[in-house]
UniProtKB/TrEMBL annotation:
Domain Argonaute linker: 121-174
The protein's name in its UniProt record: Argonaute linker 1 domain-containing protein
Gene name for this UniProt entry: tag-76
Family matches, as SMART domains: DUF1785
InterPro entries: ArgoL1, PAZ_dom_sf
Organism: Trichinella papuae
SUPFAM superfamilies registered for this protein in UniProt: PAZ domain
Amino acid sequence: LNCDDSREIFWAYVVKRSDIFGDPFKLAYDGRSALFTVDKLSLKQVSEEAALDKFSFKTVRENKPSEVTILIKPTGLVHLDFKNAESGLLDEREKGAIQFLDILFAQGRSCPLFELSKSFKAVKNSFYFIPEGAGVDVKYGIDLWRGLFISARVIDGFRPGINIDVSHSCFYKHQSLINLICDILNGDEHQAKFHPRQLKIDTRLKPEHLRLLIPELKGVSIHTTHRNQDRIYRIKDISGTAA
């Protein structure tokens, strides 16, 4: 499971088990393994250290729901005290990100319970705005998206600080796989040589085209459009013959 899957599963579980979590806006989850809460959770302990529960959920890569196991281990209180901190210089370890504040600042753009999260793509501490139309075309089927990098840190003098930078990154265009293949083959040429309308039942790619496409498409995830439900497949290899 990636961070997006984990967030979808966790927040769906939070909504379902309101008897455990209460107000979801009193929770901060990083999409991996850290959960912070304002109030102590009412957990049924399976041991002195952990509470275990099973939950059925269907990700977009599956045909049917799978049973996932959710393990929660209480670790104690988190106390951030800057006023009473001793003065002095910090070493590099102490200047690391304050995990709780990092998650808190990120959650509005990553938690699926917030409407705002639908407009952003979260990648670690960066949040890229999903363009409503086309982004900045950098050819080869790729758009350039603009976003923000947000990180909470402890700075000299034991003071809390927030580092916010404008960030840019490349993402695949929201388009059909056939259009993506044509964009890759066209490269940065001004005059497009490949177009979906050229495809016929006997269309074959030349060896040099396959050599260009295979490294670009291997590992790319695609959404299906021929079913009523959304699914994601990952490309493993490419055939030179049209299906």
